[in-house]
Amino acid sequence: MSVGSDTVTVKPDLALLRGENTVFPVYIDPPMGLALDERTVLSSDGDRFYDFDGDYGVGNCSRLGPWYCDKYHTNRMYFEFAPTNLAGKHVIDAVFRAYETWSFSCTPQGVDLWRTNNISEGSTWPGPAQLDLMGDRVVSAGRGTACSPEQPDSWIEFQDNPAEPDENLTSTVRSFANGKFSRLTLMLRATDEGNPDAWKRFDDNAQLQINYVPKPGLPSPYGVVPGNGTMRYCNPHIGDPLIVTDSTPRVQAGTQTLVQPASNGFKGSLHAYFDAERYDPNTGKWIHTWDALSPSYRPDGYLETVEMSYRADQIMYRVRMQTRSYWTHEGKTSSMSSGYTPWCYFKTDTTAPKAPVITSNGPYVPCLPNDCPGAGAPGQSGLFTFRPAPGDVDITGYRYRLITQTGASTVNGGSPAAQPVTPKLAGTHVLTVEAKDVRERYGEKAEYIFKVAPGQAPVGRWQYADRPEGTATSTTTKDTATEGTVRHDATLTGGATWSARARRGPGDHSLDLNSADPAKQQAYAATTGPAVNTRDSFTVSTWAYLTDTATNRVVLSSSGNQDSAFTLYYSANNRKWAFNRGAQDLATTPDIVSLADATSPARVWTHLAGVFDTKGNTDKTDDTIQLFVNGRPQGQPVRLSATAATYEPWMSPDGLQIGRTRSGGVYQQYFRGYIDETTVWQRALNADEVREESRGRETAILETPGAELVAHWTAEGAVGTQIGERSGYGKPALALSAEGAQLVAGDDGTELRLDGAKGHASATGPVIDETASFTVSARVRLDGAELATKPVGSRSYVLGQATPAGAESSWALWVEKTSEETYRWRFGRTATDPVGKATHDTWTSSQDVAELDSWVQVTGVYDHTEKTEEGYGNVRLYIGAAGQASYTPTFFGAAVQGAGALTAGRGSAQGTSGHFLPGALSDLRVWTGAMIEEQISNRVLGNPGDF
Predict the structure, then answer these.
(1) Which fold is adopted by the domain 32-213?
(2) Which end of the chain has fewer CB atoms at under 10 Å, N or C?
(3) What is each CA distance from 346 to 234, 237, 318, 319, 927, in whole angstroms?
(4) Distance in angstroms (rounded) separating the CA atoms of residues 939 and 879
(5) Is the pTM of this model over 0.90?
(6) Which numeric CATH code is attached to 357-452?
(7) Which residues in the chain show pLDDT less than 50?
């Protein structure tokens, strides 16, 4: 059922669509219960009842006068809630319910509900600090027929009373849902703890329920439809406006919630709002000219189309969009808005060229409304012919591109020859073409929608997930590919085994070639026959975690009698990853190498790929090889014949060698470390396909990225001057500074307390390959009093990795003082030149101000495969499980790798180190892989020890 189902008329304070008032219903989802995470009862006599069952007393249990207890004591009861499923929800109302089973007196007595600091199994009397009074009730229940009238057991509800402004349960729970603090702990206590009459008993089943609506997110997709087509476009630069040939153009916006609702969840009562301005060339100013609100409420994901009123010709306009979420509660209708999209610039020109005619010369065919057949393959060019629209007689050229590509190609002439267009990935593509006339005007976009069939699937894939259970002794890992009829299982040899350190996270396994036993340091795995024909185009890829850089270490190869047809390896002399091709199967012929652009850190997961490309012909002078590291091409393709005159394409008769190669007729250069997700294709993948493979999905089908916990420091259990690392990867402990940092027992267990002046903890990094995707998270409590003494603009660093020169942080989480009383969380990245000067930086910020003096979970994500307007590479920030919408570009495409100090409580920025954090830290974690919202909720906010 809906909490509210009233109808509301939007007041005509906007120039609504067609100038009419709009009537629409708005709803609030049914109440949702929050997850109860921990509970305890603390007693003044020293007893504590963590995770108690049944009912317990609250208040003063006395042995004086008519009252009698086994011993004199006072009890307080605590319930701690987790933010499970709260991300993206705006709390309208909150109710705390406790079930009273007994009261000492029939006379109603006061009981208070307080918000406190968090509890743990070790919490003792008097309990965590009381932060804020949530509410109070004067009640008596559970006496049954002993009272007149009868007082049965009853739920006691705490809900904000408008007549008592000090009651703010709803606003507190709203802050909790916004991620301002990581756990919400509520305490029941007697109002007068000296009054034995106030002794009550409550059950263990307390509830915290909320009414909510989804928060609105930025509209997606959005833009202007330039003519009669179906696609919308947004040109975000005034110098390149979209040309619109319709005087009443259509604008589109997809209504979005901030977090996608569950399939059975409330999708929201949303509206798309459009705001347009025109440019006045006389004043150089933008003037509001039109706005509209969609005519009725919409659910998440609804694409709204609105026709603008008449737009004058030859005028520059811009339009932006936002999503608005509405609700009605207790007879009052309210709303909240997302931020605005970037401006979309367009110019009306009804005499400009109309949409040209596009014809495919093959192999691609147009999609029909209910039929979109796939054709061709990724990397296969299609030929397209462009001709003027009927009636356009002065066309002199065309501009065209796939909308997934940056930049456009041009061709001159009204009837040019067919032009090649090369889609890089499988799936649906849109080719857009604009005609240019003799006045040098580009006109309306024409669209040709077609689908690219998937390229040939892998011919071999080894995931090493088939570790034998129990006492099984199998040494075979399965080839899980499905292409072709022959599978090439690999046999583990020489002490090779499986490891739980694996790229897809908990439950996954990798190939373990990291034995400390010298007798097992020539371990490897191999297939019994060739997994790929090395004479024809092929691609190999894998994840590698290298632990020993003393000599060359081979990840993959395919051998002949004397040499290897290819070798993917770490070059100790260059301290870089490399991919080579043996010129011939002779001991005396050279190896031709494609070398990584930069030095490569050890003890980090890195995605490697090598591509051998014959260009689809038998001319050996066209053959090239290229190395990719974390989805990025390294240098230019190496032309084999030009590098070695003796080069001949040849086929390896040997099986795929995982962890060794053959050179001079001898197997050697054995790998030390872990190998995972090994894959081979009998074709040359293009750069976009390699980047997609480097995402590291949990499975080949699911889009969820794999994420492996590779570093974890927790103050709980730490003693002395170090915080040990517990991920299983053996990263260094965090060493506490001599001054200003100490491990202390707090309300919620052991914490690292930092003074904001000198205190910090550091270890030698890096712990991740920062040219790939990663996730970092910290549980932190800010000291509000100390932060107040810092100047506006100051940063206080939570966790970060220094750049090699040390004067900047290659990545960092920090809090920034943006005004005298305002602080915001931030996550950012910085690139530097060889002398350490910052050349590019980007950061994203929290929407709400940072909560002070409470524990908060702050998480930063860098995704090297996420596409932005400027390219690939993006940063994201989460407070609790709430993703923070970014309204400024956060592109970071540099292949940057930090080195040296990884520090908690201190960082480097703008050429200086310091920026100390006043407050406390309890848990710091780093993952390989860019987590998404669901993973933030389940793994970051879940049990830290399990993930």
Answers:
(1) Jelly Rolls (2.60.120)
(2) N
(3) 8, 9, 6, 8, 43
(4) 14
(5) no
(6) 2.60.40.10
(7) 1-28, 945-946
